[in-house]
Amino acid sequence: MAEALVELTALRRKLGPTLESVGGPVDVAIISKGDGFIWIKRKHYFKAETNLDFSIRKNLATKGVSP
Fold this sequence. Notes:
It is a single chain. By secondary structure, the chain is of the alpha+beta class. The chain is built from two helices and two strands. The longest helix is centred in the N-terminal third of the chain and has 14 residues, at 2-15. It is elongated, with a radius of gyration of 16 Å. The chain starts with a helix and ends in a 5-residue tail after the last helix.
């Protein structure tokens, strides 16, 4: 939802008479009490080494094991 709002704001600024101040690729992350900070979408790539905990949890989840 947050990403959609940023993209909508960027489109509105682009089409409006004001100076374009928002836009480009958007980073998306989730912060939860149990998992902490997890990148969902990064600007050019998603590096596994940047999110080792996420990769471990994802592998465990696909095997049906809870962390």
